[in-house]
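Inverse folding, one chain.
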């Protein structure tokens, strides 16, 4: 199965985003990962829908939008109108998850659910038949550049076994601390999408770094 790379622009400087998005557009990555944070669900703030819509026309890649926010319902239409292709929200929020799933599907966008490291994957079992993607966080959400939590590998493996046994057509995306070594562990455990932020942006050339990571998992 193909491994999809989803570079997280959180790893780059916000002063440089137009360039970053056009570079990623030229790379082999299939997705671009946008981390939306509200300073409430997570202890950090990033950007909202306008940022995404302003960058939308700079790239034809799939915009993989990860909402680390409370009150998802309040702004959902704005994220859809901004041109998000996949919208993933967290299962730990205090909202009607089925309503959010249906709303995103009605607008013909792909829908994902993310889970924090301490949340068991079984919490989202009942939604798996209705969604396109699950994000397993391998760091506490909120910041790029943290170390990969090895204790999440078993969760990836168990979820992937369930997905296979039930013939579900769903992305298993891993987010946090991904590099060659940790990415390999995730793929071996059954993941098929890898988010990578600081690992790519700390290298000299973003396009070369992204293409090398893509090649490594798709040779
Ligand atoms: C963390 C974000 C991640 C982050 C990944 O809350 O969801 O997408 O940007 O960055 P790295 O790859 O540096 O862990
Ligand atoms: Zn993310």
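Residues assigned per position:
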């Amino acid at each position: 199965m193909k491994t999809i790379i989803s570079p997280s622009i959180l790893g780059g400087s916000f002063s440089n985003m137009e360039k970053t998005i056009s570079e990623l557009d030229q790379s082999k990555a299939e997705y671009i990962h946008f981390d939306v944070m509200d300073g409430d669900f997570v202890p950090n703030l990033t950007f909202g829908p306008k940022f995404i819509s302003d960058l939308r026309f700079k790239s034809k890649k799939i915009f993989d939008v990860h909402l680390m926010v409370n009150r998802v319902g309040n702004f959902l239409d704005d994220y859809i109108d901004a041109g998000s292709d996949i919208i993933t929200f967290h299962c730990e929020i205090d909202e009607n998850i089925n309503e959010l799933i249906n709303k995103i599907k009605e607008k013909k966008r792909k829908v994902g659910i993310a889970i924090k490291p301490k949340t068991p994957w079984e919490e989202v079992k009942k939604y798996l038949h209705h969604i396109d993607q699950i994000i397993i966080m391998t760091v506490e959400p909120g910041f790029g550049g943290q170390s990969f939590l090895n204790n999440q590998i078993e969760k990836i493996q168990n979820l992937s076994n369930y997905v296979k046994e039930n013939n579900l057509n769903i992305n298993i995306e891993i987010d946090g601390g991904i590099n060659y070594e940790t990415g390999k562990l995730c793929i071996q455990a059954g993941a098929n999408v890898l988010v990578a932020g600081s690992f790519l942006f700390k290298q000299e050339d973003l396009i070369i770094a992204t293409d090398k990571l893509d090649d490594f998992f798709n040779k």
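The CA atoms of residues 53 and 83 lie 6 Å apart. The pocket of D-xylitol-5-phosphate (ligand 1) is lined by residues 8, 10-11, 33, 35, 66, 139, 141-146, 175-178, 195-199 (CB under 6 Å).
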